[in-house]
Write a structure and sequence with these properties.
11 strands, mainly beta, seven-stranded mixed β-sheet, 124 residues
Length: 124
């Protein structure tokens, strides 16, 4: 099994920054394409960002382009999501996941292993 544990969430004001972390264990971390997803109150889970195993390929949702940055440190078995200029609409439970399917990298159904999530609340 792949175990994923997110951290770094919190309550911040609009315009502030947060850096989320996702620590992985149980499998060869560097072999997994990883992703960040979020579920806002009253909304369906949505794609945020994804990164290849090597870190050379990254893809972002239009809503976070220019504000969020995904990265990874394979030596530490950790991926990160740097979130700048946060907005109230970014409020959500953020979860990291390991890609295991053959579908598109921006679809949650392509990811089998999930963390429990870390809560991000942005006040205006």
């Amino acid at each position: 099994q792949v175990h994923l544990v997110e951290s770094g969430g919190g309550l911040v004001q609009a315009g502030d920054s947060l850096r989320l972390s996702c620590a992985a264990s149980g499998r060869t971390f560097s072999s997994y394409h990883m992703g960040w997803f979020r579920r806002a109150p009253g909304k369906e889970r949505e794609f945020v960002a994804t990164i290849s195993g090597s870190g050379d390929y990254k893809l972002y949702a239009d809503s976070v382009k220019g504000r969020f940055s995904i990265s990874r440190d394979n030596a530490q078995n950790t991926i990160y999501l740097q979130m700048d200029n946060l907005r109230p609409e970014d409020t959500a439970l953020y979860s990291c996941a390991a890609y295991t399917g053959g579908g598109n990298y921006f679809l949650a159904e392509s990811y089998r292993y999930w963390g429990q999530g870390t809560r991000v609340t942005v006040s205006s």
